[in-house]
Structure formats: C-alpha cells, structure tokens
Amino acid sequence: MTVERNYDREFVRTFFTSPTAVEGEDDSAKMLESAAGLRGMQAPDVWVPDNEDATAPSMREEGVENIISVVGEHGDEFPGEIHPRIVWHRDDPTTRHTGFEHMMAIADPEDGAGEQIDGFVVPEVGDLDDWKKADEFLTIVETEHGLPEGSLSMSVIVESAAAEIGLNRLREEVGKPSNNLERLFLLVDGEVDYTKDMRAMTPTGGLPEWQTLRHNTSRGASAAGLVAVDGPYDDIRDVAGYRERMRENRAMGMTGIWSLTPGQVATANTAPLPPEEGSWLLEAGGESVELDRVDGREVYHGDAVGLTETADGFELTVDGRTETLDADELRERLVGMTEYVPSLDDVVDSMEEFEAAKEAGKGAIAMTRAATLEIDGVTVEISTDRMWDEATYQAAQTPILLFQDVYEHRQDQHAELADTYGEDVVERAAEVGN
Amino acid sequence: MTVERNYDREFVRTFFTSPTAVEGEDDSAKMLESAAGLRGMQAPDVWVPDNEDATAPSMREEGVENIISVVGEHGDEFPGEIHPRIVWHRDDPTTRHTGFEHMMAIADPEDGAGEQIDGFVVPEVGDLDDWKKADEFLTIVETEHGLPEGSLSMSVIVESAAAEIGLNRLREEVGKPSNNLERLFLLVDGEVDYTKDMRAMTPTGGLPEWQTLRHNTSRGASAAGLVAVDGPYDDIRDVAGYRERMRENRAMGMTGIWSLTPGQVATANTAPLPPEEGSWLLEAGGESVELDRVDGREVYHGDAVGLTETADGFELTVDGRTETLDADELRERLVGMTEYVPSLDDVVDSMEEFEAAKEAGKGAIAMTRAATLEIDGVTVEISTDRMWDEATYQAAQTPILLFQDVYEHRQDQHAELADTYGEDVVERAAEVGN
Amino acid sequence: MTVERNYDREFVRTFFTSPTAVEGEDDSAKMLESAAGLRGMQAPDVWVPDNEDATAPSMREEGVENIISVVGEHGDEFPGEIHPRIVWHRDDPTTRHTGFEHMMAIADPEDGAGEQIDGFVVPEVGDLDDWKKADEFLTIVETEHGLPEGSLSMSVIVESAAAEIGLNRLREEVGKPSNNLERLFLLVDGEVDYTKDMRAMTPTGGLPEWQTLRHNTSRGASAAGLVAVDGPYDDIRDVAGYRERMRENRAMGMTGIWSLTPGQVATANTAPLPPEEGSWLLEAGGESVELDRVDGREVYHGDAVGLTETADGFELTVDGRTETLDADELRERLVGMTEYVPSLDDVVDSMEEFEAAKEAGKGAIAMTRAATLEIDGVTVEISTDRMWDEATYQAAQTPILLFQDVYEHRQDQHAELADTYGEDVVERAAEVGN
C-alpha cells in the first residue's frame, strides 16, 4: 500500500502563529481578529491561534474563549486551514490534562468553534507513546462531539531529542489498531526548546543550525506521508536570511516554515514557487553569482572571473589563475561554470515537451538551453544539453505539484499568481502532468 | 515521568585518561600517581585510569594492581569522579571475560579500590545487547561485593556503527525489568576506532569530523538523561583547534571532551564557562571578528568593512560593496552585523532581571544592550533589543546550570573561579534561578 | 559473534550500469556486449546489466533475453561480479511480480544465465518488510532452480526515506529465522529518486548533497557487514568533481560509487588506492595546497603564505598577518601548518615498521617524516613525529585491506598496478599484515 497523505493540503508553505489573548489591551482578541482577516499572499496555508508560548500562562483560559469566538465567527471565510496550538508537556500530566480540556472546549460544534477547526497543534511531545496520549485525547474529543474518529488532525512540534528519535518509528506506528495516528498532519521543528532539551550552547546565545534535526524531520515526514515545517525565524527584519533558510530547507524536502508576521507569511508563501523569470548563474570564487540580463546578453559584473580575446584565442582568469583557450575550449569551460535557474514558464515548457516525447514513444530527450554570456565585454555563445528521462521528469515535478496544490486550495491567491506569472502560464502550470 | 539523571554530575567537562602501568619505569604506577595529585582547573571532572588502549596489553594485570593501590590510597581526596576503563570487545568473549574479572577485582571493597570507584568505562561496545552484557557483569560485581544494584555507574565508548545505531533505542531499553541500564552515565565518542569500524579513509590519515556521530551521541544522551563526551584531540599543541572543536560540540549539546594532558584538562574545564568579559562581534567577509574595547569604544581593525562620514551621511563598505546611508540606516545596518557575547556577569544580570519581571507578572521583556562602535575612526552608537520570554530564559540557563554544577561539586575550583570572575559574580551565579 | 561479510569482495570500488536493450539499434544488446568485454582498470568490480531505469519500459522483456545471452556467453571471463538490476517498486505489486519473473528467468541455470549471475540489484525498496519480499522471491528462485538458499546475493538501491530509516534495523533483522537477508551485499544510494521521494527542490534542479543519507547508508553497511556505494555522478566530463565526491565518500566509509562510463570506472577504480608518490600539503587561506617537489625541496607557490629571513630571525605572513619568529618557532609553526599524504610505499613501510616494533614488544612507536620546505625562496627543514599504536595501525590498514582485496580478486588489474607502483611495492602491499 502506498503511503497516503490523509489531508487536503499536500504542501504547506506557511505556519503562522497568533497570540490568543493579549494582556492589557481593550480587546484581548485583537491579534486573533487581525489574523483572521488576512487574505492572499499575506494569509498563511496554516493559521495557528497559539494558546501556548505566544500567550501568557495567565491569559490562556481567556485565549480559549477568544479562539471560540473569533474562529467561530470568521473561520468560515478564512482561506487557509486553522489549527490552534494547545498546551502540552511530555513531563507534566497537569499540562496535558489542561490541553485536553482546551481541545474539548474549542472543538465543541455547539458551544465551541467546532466545524471551523481543522486540527490541533501539540507542542513539547516526547517519544511516540507521548504522541499517542494526545492522539487518544483527540479520539475522545471526537467521540464526545459526535465526530468521526480521525477527523481532527494532529500536528506536533518536534522539540526534544525523544521526539526526534520517535520520527524513525512513525511509519510503522501509524495504522496500528490501538491508535488513530493517521490523523497526523504536520511535523514542525521547534529549535528554541530543542536547543534547551539538548543543552546546547553558543557564545552569543544564538540558535545552532540543527541541520541533522531538519533532515530527520523531513525524512520522517516523507516516510509517513506527512508535511515537514521549520521553526520560527526570529530576526524579522532579515528577509535575505529567512529566504536563505527556506532555500536550505527545500533542499532537504522541508517545504514549510513558521511565520511570525504577515510580512514573513508573504515572503514564505512566495519563496517556494519557481521564479517569474529564469536566470543564469556563474560559479566562481566559491560562490554562485546571478548574471544580469542586458539586451539579451547575460552579463557578469564580478571580479572573480576575467576574459580577454587575444590573437590566438582567449585568456580566461578564474580565481587568480589564467588559462589560454581556443573558442571551443572556452565554451566548454564556461558551460561547466554556469547553471540555469528555470522560471515557472520554463519548467512547464520542459514538462510539456517531455510528455509529448513520451507519448511519441521516446524514453529520454535532450533539453537544450542557449545563452550569450558577456564577461569583460567579450561575448560567448553557450548552449547546454540536459537529458530528461522519467526520473528527471518526476523530480522536476515537485515545484509544479506544490504550485498545483496552492492553485487548488488557495483561490484567494489566484489574482496575485496571475499578476506575477501571467494568466497563461498559471493556467498551463495548473494543468501540466494531469 | 521525567527523564531523571541518576548521577551527581549533570555536566561533565573533562574526561582525563591515564595509563595504569607504564613499562620500563621504576614505578609503573607513576602516571596514575601524578594524575591522582591533580587539583583545581587541572583536575578533571571524570578521571579515567585507562587499563585499555593507553596501557600495553602485557601490563594490564599490573595495571589492575596499580589502580587498586593508587586509587585506594588517594581516591578519597581526589576532587573529581573516578571511572577506570577496563578491556571489552563486542566481538571477543575472552576480552569481555577479562574485563569482568578486572571490574570484580577493582571494585572489591576489601582487597580492591572499592568505595573510591564511581563506575567503569566500557570501550568497544556493539549494539544494546552487548551493552547489557557489561551491565549484567556489573550487577554480578555489585551483588558479590554486597553493593546495591546500580550503585556502580557504566559509561561506554561509542566507537562502532552498531553502538551509534543503538543510541536510538537507549531511552526505551533503560528501565526494562531485566537490566540495570539506569546505571549509564557517559556516552563517549571514540573517533579513532569508529573510523576503523566504518572503514573510512582520508588522504593524510587524519580523522574525519564525524559530525553526524556527535549529533547522534548528544541526542541519545539527551533522550536518556545521560552526558555526552567527545573523543580525544590528538594534537596537544593545537589549543586553538581544541577550543574550536569544543565550541562546535557545545552547539550540539555535547558539553564534555576527552583530555590527554593536565593542560588539556585546564583548557577544557574553562572553555564551557561564560567569559569573564563580554565582547562584540562584527560579521563581515564571511567571518565574525571580535572588536577591541578601547576607552569604552568597540573598535574594528579589519579590512572587510570601511566607513566614512560625508556631507550627506555615511558611506559603508562591506565586502567591497559601498552603500550611502543616513545615520538611522547606518545604525540599523550595523545592528544587523553585530552580535554580543555575554559575560557570566551579563548572563546573571539578564536572568535576574527576567525573574524580577516575571514576579511582577510580565511574560516577556526587552533586554537592551548598547555600544559605541568605531570603524575607520568614525564612531556610531548602537543599541539592540532582545525579547526574553520563558523559553529564552530557559535556553540561556544552560551555561548557568553548568556553572552551578561545577560550583557544587568542585570546591577545589572555587578559588580559581573567584580569581577569574570576582567573588560577587561567582556567588550570584551560584544562586540565580534557585 | 563478529559481523561476517558473506561475500568474496570486502570492498567494491565501482558499480557500472549498462542498458540491457537499446531501441532502434541493429543489435539491441550492443551496450551489454561492449561492457562484457571490459578488462583491467576499465572493468568494474560490480557490473550491473540494468533492466530498470537505463532501459526503456518497452524493451525490458528483450532486456531479459539479452542478459541471458550476453552474460551466459561472456560472463565466465568477465573479471568483476555480475549483478543485474531488475524492476521493483515498494508501491506497485505488478512491478514486483514482473521483477520476480525476470529474476526467475535470468537465474535459470539451464535456459538462463544461471551460474554467471552473482546476485540481483533491487531498486525502489521501501521499509525492511519490503526488502523481505524481494528476499523471499530470491529464496523461491533459488529453490526452484536447485540452488542453496542465500547463494544469490541481493543489493538494494536506497532511494526512499523508508529505506533510509530501515538501515537502522538491518543488523537485527539479518539472521532472523524467517528470512534470508544474509544474502545482502551492497547498499547503493539513489539520489535522483530519493530527492523525489523527499520532495526536495533546488533552484537549478541540481541534486542536493544528501550527506546525512550517505552517512546513514555507510553506517548501516558497517553495522551489518555490507558494502556502501554512492549513486551516479551525472556530469561525466567533470572528473575533478567526481574525484572530490569520492574523497568525501571515503571519509564517511563509503568506498564505492556508481559509474556511468568506462572512463568513470577507470577513475573510480583508481581513486581509493593510495597515490604512487607522497606529497606535502600546506594549509593556508582556508584551503590545503599541495607543494611542488623540486630537487628534493617542497616548494610553495601560493599567495596566502609569505616568508622572509631578517637579521633577527624570520617574518612569516599567513592570511595577511605577519609574525616575527626565531628558527625553532618557525619550524614549529610550519609543522602545524603542513600535512603529509603518504604513498602506497609509505603506508607499507610504516606498517612493516610498526609490526617489527610490536614483535620486539613495543606497543607504540614514533614515525618521523622530514622535509625541506621552500617559501619565497627561504628553505626550512621540518620534521614531524606521529605516534603509532595498535589503533593507529588498524585505522591505517583500511587502504591496504582495500588494495589486498583488489589484488586478490582482480588479476586483470595486476599489470596496471605494477606499472603504477612498481612490482616490488605491489608485492609488499599484497603481503603486509598477513
């Protein structure tokens, strides 16, 4: 049996938390209300009214009431899914009991926010036996409220070593007769508390990168048909750093990330989609530099590569070393140093081309891409071939599957997508491969 | 039930091995005797009379006698714990039998070193079933000598792939009725033999970094309430390299490291404690440079950043790119490029401030830190805010918990701590959070 | 019981795939035939007639026939092992059934290629229960064809998260009474399909590095007595990149790699063997530079290090910082900056020397290596000591064990080895340690 994803959303780009009750405001539900009004790129795929760390302990009973009233009233029109975070702790039965009661209250279809709730987020879980306790409470909540077993999803924050190790056994525990762990949806890393649980220290108090944790979370999600999401990125002003973190995450298969502000939501909703225009990269001096497109030429402006034409051919200087090359050698050298970042349009083109070839009985075709490079005023025509076979096609498909998941579930983003890519590209991208 | 640490020391900074019997000396126990006399920062948290690799096979029976006599005589005054390493091998029953006999002899309260022994270090373990064999021998040793089950601790050297994989299941095996694995204390990486077991090769014969092994060991320790320790750093003269290795380790939650000399012990006992004075870092050119404090200014002496004041504002050059900025933009840019490394005094201050705020009913407060930067003779006042909430507080607490563990168990280091930090800071650090 | 390797080859350098049937050629078995004729360094340790991804789905029945005829005819003289890859998918029973039928046909000792087949390669496996299905089919194939159980080996392509997680339990599943997983031989990473399974994305569509996957595969192989092999390196012209990838792999204990052409086979057969000549490295400016040997001096030609002799001593400039040193300080500084890459001859010398010392009753000896460095025309004599004990000896032995495995099983490479290293060195390397 194939691993089935049990939920509508196969990809989640954004996990946006809002405090449920803020002290000292006229209206303690203010933050919830403004979040409930978000639409388009500023609205997250998953909205998390956060009755745990974002809300002061003394305000959490009021937070439950606020969730019930705000989500009850506005949840219906909200374009993303709604998954409140309740309190929980692997080491504290009182906290777990409180979390159970909050879930029971919020999920009540009559006095609670009932039908507007897609599921709950459970923080501070330990090993899988602890996850099962939360699962059991959800089963009881469902039964008491007359909901089918498994209809409320459960997402967890992976923020302890025990939870990280548990990821290895998730696939085999899901589906056992004594649990309803098929309700699992998101695996979200929580690096602040994980750092504490691991007793890790850095000189400045900054968080470690925790790359192995992120790999393991992504791998656990892949093995069990779930979705992996990275934790919060605290430095809200550092947009470049946030984008770089997401780039790293996507290369591990972790497509989603926590967002703390509508600005971060907009950045993180956009980042995983292919760019509007393709671009060429030149690798030199240990980094990849994006070339500037000027009148159809791709112009290099850095210092790490130099090129001059001589009577005999060309002198190419890379990282301080100069080679004398003829025209063919130069082309081959530059092909080795360049890479192309395809646009959404390019990806759709390539997929359509491969599909047509496959229909015509071909298993593999060469995709050619040409460019005019300009370095130090010297222009060089290059052209690269890449073989596409079924495996290449399927690997290239991931960004398109993500796009289609967004297109299907986020009607409120259609206008912005059309503005960015053009209607035609959006429609072809929505169809290709189906 | 919370994961409980079963031993006195919650942190171990240093794991110092001494040969138990050296051939060709008048007194084969010479190295043991000089180690037994170490005090203060030169004395390790855990002292390991090493009857395995550090001692020639032909000298190991004599090594057992030497442990009994030297530890028996001087163990009582030794300021750290004492954990002899005995012989063991997952693939060799004869070696395991010898290890058993050595433990029986050493732990004898009448003819052995008995009460001075805190536990044993077992090298070359395989999967958990192999760990259980060593545990069973310890149970028998305890019973024969009239000691309570579990009173001798067991530390293992993780130096095989099987042992690394076993770390995943440690948490669930500890506490099963047929073993006494609650006696586990340290998980120590042994990179030389691990490299051999993995059949890894490098051109120079140097050891690979084995970052994933270290992450997994630290994670296994965290999940099972144990302490993770890194293996030996062979290049004794390379103090900077040793410090850098420890810095990496702490960022993974591995607080301890093997030490081969009293000099390495002193370095490794000091490294995990917060510095005596705080300092500012400026990040540029791909690295963090510590600024020099001169008359209250933080002065940058590198080449990667340049700053000039112009009629219109400022020109800031970073890694070869120049931007024109007004005073506010400059400040914001520099705040983004700087980081502060807090001193012990700073950490204690912040924690006390947060505790006071919490008592006054506040869940989160902003901690402000100001400095006068000087770049190319131009001075700029900057000030950074960092939000502290309960999670920040608890994560910041790790170095203080370590400090307090040292303070409680290492009376012999009090004078040196007071010399470094001042009595007042030491006393406040010993109290904060309690 | 020690982990036993169940197969002849303890090391596999090369895993070379050939399409089994190419469409539109006069002779669809052309590629198989030319592969069957490879000898010496161009012939792989493991040859994989690839009836999966390298062969169009419509050609796979013909592929089976081609394997039977070409391997049946030429397999006997082929110098490497022969392991066809059949079709398989964890999510598709039809594909698995086809894979079973293909194995039955190919392994037939009368109408198939029978005795020439060493085993099969099974792609797209999931968790261990899926591996067991393939194992069970092989057991049936063996029984039907009158072969002993376990006589056909099984290698798997690790290209799903579930398979990666399964590696953790391999050691304990092998040897259970209801399976014949002792037949396992190679664990081969398949990064293209793994990327798809993990839903990972990169801007250019290039493959992520997947270092944690490679570590885990190597570790799983080590724990279960198997051999780890890395996946294909697509950029056939990038020989330097291929070599660098193998260098990284060896530092993780992954000695083998996929090869797509006889040229890659020759590169990958040679790369793990120690070099013909030793060389010195100088570390500066964040990289290691190999020094040029000129008339017995080791000459540095880079810019990161400068040296001048003054009236008082020496001025050494490293990465822009100048220090004034006397002759002894200079020597110590340079010893810290240099490393030696030993040749095969050097490794054999050191091992012989240590063996002689051990026979004379010494547990550890210092190995001295001296050189004359030249920087900016100034020469400096340096000499480094390295302590060798039993553990150093055994870790250093890995490249020699690999050499001996090659020497024993690849008679067809003896002439090339003698050409490279000289007969004398080859013979001593073949004997040392036995």
How many β-strand runs of chain A?
Answer: 18
Q: Which strand order do you get reading across the main beta sheet of chain A?
A: 3-2-1-8-7-6-5-4
| Oligomeric grouping of the chains | homotrimer
Low-confidence stretches of chain A: none
In words, what does this structure look like?
The structure is a homotrimer of 434-residue chains. With 434 residues, chain A is of the alpha/beta class. Chain A has helices at residues 30-36, 60-74, 93-106, 128-144, 161-166, 170-173, 191-197, 211-224, 239-250, 262-270, 327-337, 344-359, 390-409, 414-421, 423-431, and strands at residues 14-19, 46-50, 81-82, 119-122, 153-158, 184-189, 227-230, 256-259, 279-284, 287-290, 292-294, 297-300, 305-309, 314-318, 321-325, 338-341, 365-375, 378-388. In chain A, the strands form 4 sheets. Chain A has an 8-stranded parallel sheet with strand order 3-2-1-8-7-6-5-4. A 4-stranded mixed sheet of chain A has the order 11-12-17-18. In chain A, strands 10-9-16 form a 3-stranded antiparallel sheet. Chain A is elongated. Chains in contact: A-B, A-C, B-C. The interface between A and B is large, with 33 and 46 residues.
